[in-house]
Amino acid sequence: MDIKPISPDISVAPQIQPEELAELASQGYRAIICNRPDGEGADQPTFEEMAAAARAVGLEARYLPVVSGKVQDSDAEDFGKALRELPGPILAYCRTGTRSATLWSLSQASTMAPAEILTAAKNAGYDMAGVVRRIVNGGKTPTDTGDAKFDVVIVGGGAAGISVAASLKSRKPDLDIAVLDPADIHYYQPGWTMVGAGVFEPQSTARTMGSLIPKGVHWIKSAVAAFEPQNNAVILDGCRVVKYDRLVVCPGLKLDWGKVDGLVQTLGKNGVTSNYRYDLAPYTWELVKGLKSGNAIFTQPPMPIKCAGAPQKAMYLSGDYWSKVGRLKNVDIQFMNAGGVLFGVKDYVPALEEYVKKYDATLNFFHNLIAIDGPGKTATFKVAKPDTEATEVTVDFDMIHVVPPQVAPDFIRVSPLADAAGWVDVDQSTLRHKYYDNIWSLGDVMNAPNAKTAAAARMQAPIVAENIVDDIKGISPTAMYNGYGSCPLTVERGKIVLAEFGYGGTLLPSFPKWILDGTRPTRKAWILKEQILPPVYWKAMLRGKEWMAKPEKVSAK
């Protein structure tokens, strides 16, 4: 038997035989559902045979036959009713299991999120792309798709989405463009590290989405539920359909707070904070100012994460404050890094190590936060060093700065656009999808091996815009992305190590070394971060003015 569990209560399988039911019962199943009409195949037992054999071993049986490829809404309703009435766990079967998986997916659509359903079916080996509109529509066949159609549809109104919309409009003003994003507020997330250090006010990092959407670009204030690339369609929550000639996918990352046991319940209190959330960054500064002595822990989860330097930036700026107010000798700083290196590009590590030493911080590699007890002020880490058996260690804290695990959004991971790891699958040079020629992706959600930073999106947006315009002209992409990313490592208030690098850790400095040596802490880099980059972000990058971001071109073929 090829049994494929979908949930603890339901599994599906291809055709089973009467003599296999005793084994099913021994495995704990209590009922079967037959979704295959009698006489569909010559080697198929009748339902009457199956029901008699089921009764003999104490299983209940129900007959809900569905013609292959013709699952009706009423069939899904009957399947859902059977799930409620029959004792579980249940095994449903048909010729291949696909009809049973489809019936389950549609029957759960009114109570489960589409991404959860698609994930469960995918994990069982069944692709529900063919019924995704019905799943999004609560399990019902849509009666009115209400299609809207645009030249370019952009999924995500963050740094990448608005920048690429503006860059497209600057190149081709007549393009009919729509940005899909449910958020009311757009955040300058690189500023949150500075909020957590008392340098920026939180409100300076937030503006209304409506004020930033480029003139002439439609803003559809809705979340995306699924993609139908074969139909050039995006399915929105509520089953509205938006069609496109070309699609740009850049919704950012999902911060998976729930992956750390106990974290959600204690965020923002009990000394537990994070600069990865707008509302928590001020609490970081409150804790830093208030800590007179004790244990200060700073965590970094497994890669990839947005702004890989941000976990240690919080540590450096906190240590700098405690040093300046004379408390550093009373504070034990611990950096808990799930990875094995301080920073992924070795040229910047010596300067960073000097500050680790200055703040007397202890580096703990291969330590991944798995649980936190806020009231008890303890954090538990899985320690998985190479070639050694994994262990767990629990440490006390007085304050802890947590960086959550990060993954692609659910609707991306279960989509046809994703690679096996869940990221949008692109060519790392052109940022065009590897399989769908009219789809591009940029920002944190795609799988090119670059740093996930706002500076990377600043470089990527003109490249995607240029290549889309090339595609409209009928020529091959001419703009190439070299993996550029930048991470201004705030090692103390007033000095920054300006890490700029591309694919393979190649250094890609924006300035000659005699102007600004990025491998050393400098005041110039701090001024760039504090005074220059925020207005560049708001007034240039989001408006299609490509300051220091002109695409690198190759000859069109």
TrEMBL record:
Transmembrane segment boundaries: none
Keywords: Transferase
Coiled coil region boundaries: none
InterPro entries in the cross-refs: BLH_phosphatase-like, FAD/NAD-bd_sf, FAD/NAD-binding_dom, Prot-tyrosine_phosphatase-like, Sulphide_quinone_reductase
Top-level taxon of the source organism: Bacteria
Location of the Beta-lactamase hydrolase-like protein phosphatase-like domain: 2-110
GO molecular function: transferase activity
CDD domains: PTP-bact (cd14503)
Domain FAD/NAD(P)-binding: 150-254
Record's signal peptide: none
Name of the protein described by the UniProt record: TIGR01244 family sulfur transferase
